[in-house]
Design goal:
Helix content: 55-70%
Strand order of the largest sheet: 1-2
Order of helices and strands: HHHEEH
Strand content: 5-15%
Largest sheet: 2 strands, antiparallel
Number of strands: 2
Structural class: mainly alpha
């Protein structure tokens, strides 16, 4: 199986599992999955977040997802328990499709690490 086919299969598994658990089976999109990862990383489940906090949750997720690629590094938790990351290396300029593939790869790797998929 090619790398692209494997990524596609694993991505579909992530979508299916998370959509069943968190959206009554309606397919989650990339942003929705990133948001869920942010909530997971923050560790505050069943909290109603404000709009700016939702943006921050997505930022946390992106930092965590791109950390293994060397773009970010965990720095510290603030007094409210929010993780903070520092930039290690700027992301190269990517086209929209390339950004999407990078994030899907990072999300699949994250859920492989968490043993949600295999």
């Amino acid at each position: 199986m090619s790398r692209d086919e494997q990524l596609k299969q694993r991505w579909e598994s992530v979508i299916n599992i998370l959509s069943i658990r968190f959206s009554s089976g309606e397919d989650l999109d990339l942003e929705g999955i990133i948001y869920l990862i942010g909530v997971q990383e923050l560790g505050k489940i069943n909290v109603a977040f404000k709009k700016d906090e939702k943006v921050n949750l997505m930022h946390i997720a992106i930092c965590r997802l791109l950390e293994p690629y060397g773009y970010y590094e965990f720095d510290y938790f603030d007094n409210d328990g929010w993780p903070h990351y520092k930039i290690k290396e700027e992301l190269p300029p990517l086209k929209a499709g390339e950004q999407s593939v990078l994030m899907k790869e990072a999300i699949v790797s994250y859920f492989l690490e968490k043993e949600l998929i295999d």
